[in-house]
Amino acid sequence: MICNFLVYIHIPMENFTSAIPEHRCWVHVLDNDTVSDNGTGILSQQDLLRISIPLDSNLRPERCRRFVHPQWQLLQMNKTSGNVSEAETEPCMDGWVYDHSSFLSTTVTKWGLVCEFQALNSVNKFLLTAGMLLGNFLCGHLTDRFGRRLILLGCFLMLAIADTCAALVPTFLLYCALRFLAGMSAIGILTNSTVLIVEWTKPKSQALVMICLLCSAGAGQILLGGLAYFVRNWRHLQLALSIPIFFLLLFTRWLAESARWLILTNRPQEGLQELRRAARINGMKNYKDTLTMEVVRATMKEELEMRKTKSSLRDLLRAPTLRKRICLLSFIRFTTFVSGYGLILNLQHLGTNIFLLQILSGVLSILISCAALWALNHLGRRISQFLFVLFMGISILATIFVPQDMETLRLVQSSLGGGLVFAALSSGLTHANELLPTVVRATALGIVGTAGSVGSSLAPLLMILAIYSVPLPWIIYGACSILGGLGVLLLPETRNQPLPDSVEDVENERKGSRQAKQEDTLIKVTQF
């Protein structure tokens, strides 16, 4: 839980470290710290700004243009006239002046990532999510080969070093490279910690554990918003969030390897030792007599037999019903991640008080995640996922029509959308796990997870379209979410249905007539 709490915030941290403050061109008569060119020094800052910076369509100073020569005649006018639009302007040749009321410094102010260089800010976020995409591939493979614990330790160390160094680097290129590595390691920690916790949890508690993991990520958002409010310098904030990861390494000596993984990889004796260690910690009596190699092998007999059966991509492609499910799940995961990460990484564009918005998003994500558990068990998997994904898309589209001056409404609406992201993800993960047969579940979920990672990588790049039309990225985010919600309706319901074990179970669609393996259907969670 602590891992998710401290590690997840390294993803939405970009909302503060890469925030874009208000800015305008540097101009000689206003920013050279000498007496102004009018020779009197009696003009106000507002007058000097008026003669130096043209106004945009909203009658606010342009962010990326300035007059080539001061327009002194504007001092004699109450309003701008047609002649002003004909005055010669130029880009910001001498840099920019930033508003430091919200942020003392960010990566944007450090390296001038505004105006014609604004797209680089989205590229930076893209590299973070691209690192998460690659991390999904590498960590998933390495975890199954070398174990959960070893890869988790390596990811902890890489994240701590990468993000600490990112706070100290002198160039933007190095910063992007280190954030790429941070994305790789962060997703590795989140995935492996989830798998490790679920594999050490009894089935009746797995649903609750999954919700607790999501709530811990929501609590991380609250911490991020509060800490960023008091630490307005991006370097200091990055260090404040990165250095604690080193201290987490001190506690990993008590981290146990997955007993299930040890047994399935032909290391049953080590797995038995870990089980006995857990039994001793939990206060079980006579655990040495109860936990024997024979008991372990008998309990894991089914899993050991399935381990010998190698599934391939051909098995997935030959089954039409299973193939349809995988395609639909991939589409839904892709659209959900495009919308979800588009919202999570760009909160600054939705409200003026980014600090309060981040905190409220965290609070609502905790409340809605708890509501998601109730909905999954009472409304069903399909209808719950449909409603959460649909409402997320509607909340994103609604922000387009809410005026900027209605700050309270935009704040509530954006926070609700941020909370719905977690509910959509939790319901999607649960539904996908129950739709896929046991023998090919890992392979199929790997395909679906890759589609989601591609969507999360694409989300930051879509924000570049705001240069041409401000609402366009949000229209795409909202439309993707709504399309994904409609796709959920094409999937079958899995509540109170036994999990399919083989491809034939899916193809024959006779799961309802098979005897349930458990009295109560349990929510089972797998890797992201």
Summarize the structure.
The protein has 528 residues and is mainly alpha-helical. It has helices spanning 2-7, 14-17, 28-31, 45-52, 82-85, 107-111, 119-146, 148-166, 172-199, 206-230, 234-251, 259-264, 268-281, 287-290, 293-299, 301-308, 313-318, 320-344, 354-378, 381-401, 407-435, 441-462, 472-488, 503-508, and strands spanning 23-25, 65-67, 89-91, 96-98.
Describe this entry's structure for a reader:
It is a single chain. This protein is an all-alpha fold and 528 residues long. The protein is built from 24 helices and 4 strands. It has helices at residues 2-7, 14-17, 28-31, 45-52, 82-85, 107-111, 119-146, 148-166, 172-199, 206-230, 234-251, 259-264, 268-281, 287-290, 293-299, 301-308, 313-318, 320-344, 354-378, 381-401, 407-435, 441-462, 472-488, 503-508, and strands spanning 23-25, 65-67, 89-91, 96-98.
Distance between the termini: 16 Å
Global outline = elongated
| Structural class by SSE content | mainly alpha
Indicate the radius of gyration in whole angstroms.
27 Å
